[in-house]
User: What shape does this take?
Amino acid sequence: MVKGKEKVETEEEFLDLKDETSKAESRKRIINITLWTILITWIVICFTDFILVKTENNPLFCTFSKTAEYDNGSVKSCYGLGYKVYNYDREDFTGLEFAPLWGKDKSVQD
Assistant: This one.
């Protein structure tokens, strides 16, 4: 009779353990889906602005921008999520440039 009681307890423990495991797997799945969604969204944003800059259009996703004035024109810097877009409007240098966040203004003279 003791063996039957131990069997019932182990089955209950097994069901509890199985329930906890399924909850942990559900959390992992939700975190995985969330991270992949964030990554894919970031890639789409970067790719969209990259294509717009390559076709000489202004980017859509600027978090903030600033303008540097020079004697012969100006350079507008647009900061995105991990990249910069420079819009050169100077006498000797015009156009748009897509650069990584650590990239520097190409028209600055030393």
